[in-house]
């Protein structure tokens, strides 16, 4: 099995008999970007991985970890074969002891393994079922206590949160963050780093801040860490996946969304009252669950700053199309939060829009941060 993201992208592209130009065209990138991904010179962000996964007809999780796609594995080295034979000969309880010892060798800390899984989603489901229950909103501070992590707040210079993995692990959260929902996600992701047994670094920083040059240019501005969608680190993607599944349990989302069209009003109500997460996080998770039906874009100062696409490729334009509802907020903003919605040409938002195709757009403007969040709903009538 290919053991890196770049190898999995390249091998799968070749399996589908696609050129780098073909793949770039499908995901809305330039061919040099695909070449850089495949050579390892550049890592794709999580947002780019979502686009690549649809074009390559594999899951995002497979591109990140290589665990999902069923294929013949490459021959193991002799040492690996011997280790596997030893492991397979052990009783289940002894296998757990072996993993505990391996983690001790890697980190120097003693960790008790109750159950072993292969994916972040499985770990999240285990903790929901066996440790903290599914009562919403999920108490991530209670989860930290359950797994033996002490949580403190401090004035951090490096990021929005830091996990220090020692015999008595601690998480430090930046006390300057004014959004509690963002702080919750940071905490959940750092817990993910701690519980995933192959995350072996002595410390992890969540949402690293921009460099000091940015702060010097904007001394009075609160500088936020990087978006979870723009990360290029595999372990960060996995920790975020754990956090998504902990804060927004799949079973609940299925009940709330799958059989009905989502509205911004309903999503905001659920985000605030049921899940206690940001609206941005909830709409992104919605796309995960119904990727054939939804896509999400965030914009600021008429520029598109984040994309979370479903199965259809979102436009690669830097600026919001003037025909969209989102664009109207930048030419005619409101001092209060407002939703503008309606049918717009699909070409405002999608690379593969057909002639005369439309899409239903719901855009909400937050005057506090001066950003627009857009939810795009692809109706059945738009499909041939």
- Overall shape: it is globular
Radius of gyration based on Cα positions: 22 Å
Query: What's the helical proportion of residues?
Result: 40-55%
Biggest β-sheet, characterized?
Answer: 5 strands, antiparallel
Order of helices and strands: HHHHHHHHHEEEHEHHHHHEEHEEE
The amount of beta strand, in percent, is 15-25%
Instruction: Record the strand order, biggest sheet.
Output: 6-5-9-8-7
Provide the residue-averaged pLDDT. Answer: 83
Number of helices: 16
Ranges with pLDDT <50 over ≥5 residues? 69-73, 211-224
**What is the CATH fold-level name of the largest domain?**
Arc Repressor Mutant, subunit A
- Termini separation (Å)? 37 Å
Strand-pairing-aware structural class? alpha+beta
The CATH class of the largest domain: Mainly Alpha
Structure summary, number of beta strands: 9
CATH architecture assignment of the largest domain? Orthogonal Bundle
User: What is the domain tally?
Assistant: 3
């Amino acid at each position: 099995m290919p053991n890196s993201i770049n190898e999995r992208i390249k091998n799968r592209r070749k399996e589908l008999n696609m050129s780098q130009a073909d793949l770039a065209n499908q995901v809305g990138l330039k061919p040099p970007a695909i070449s850089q991904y495949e050579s390892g010179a550049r890592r794709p962000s999580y947002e780019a991985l979502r686009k690549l996964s649809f074009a390559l007809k594999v899951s995002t999780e497979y591109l990140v970890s290589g665990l999902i796609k069923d294929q013949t594995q490459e021959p193991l080295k002799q040492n690996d074969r011997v280790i596997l034979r030893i492991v397979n000969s052990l009783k289940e309880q002894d296998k757990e002891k072996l993993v505990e010892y391996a983690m001790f060798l890697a980190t120097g800390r003693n960790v008790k393994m109750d159950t072993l899984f292969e994916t972040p989603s499985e770990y999240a489901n285990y903790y929901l079922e066996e440790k903290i229950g599914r009562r919403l909103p999920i108490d991530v501070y209670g989860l930290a206590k359950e797994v033996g992590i002490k949580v403190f707040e401090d004035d951090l210079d490096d990021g929005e949160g830091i996990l220090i993995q020692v015999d008595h692990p601690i998480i430090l959260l930046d006390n300057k963050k004014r959004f509690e929902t963002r702080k919750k996600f940071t905490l959940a992701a750092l817990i993910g780093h701690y519980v995933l047994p192959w995350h072996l670094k002595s410390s992890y920083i969540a949402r690293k801040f921009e460099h000091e040059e940015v702060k010097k240019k904007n001394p009075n501005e609160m500088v936020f860490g990087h978006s979870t969608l723009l990360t290029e680190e595999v372990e960060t993607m996995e920790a975020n996946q754990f956090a998504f599944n902990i804060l927004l349990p799949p079973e609940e989302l299925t009940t709330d969304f799958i059989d009905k069209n989502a509205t911004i009003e309903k999503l905001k109500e659920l985000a605030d009252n049921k899940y206690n997460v940001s609206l941005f996080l909830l709409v992104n998770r919605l796309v995960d669950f119904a990727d054939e039906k939804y896509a999400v874009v965030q914009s600021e100062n008429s520029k598109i700053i984040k994309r979370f696409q479903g199965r259809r490729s979102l436009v690669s334009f830097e600026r919001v199309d003037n025909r969209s509802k989102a664009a109207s907020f930048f030419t005619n903003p409101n001092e209060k939060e407002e939703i503008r919605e309606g049918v717009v040409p699909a070409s405002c938002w999608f690379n593969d829009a057909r002639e005369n195709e439309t899409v239903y757009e719901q855009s909400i403007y937050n005057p506090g941060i001066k950003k627009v969040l857009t939810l795009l709903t692809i109706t059945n009538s738009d499909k041939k």
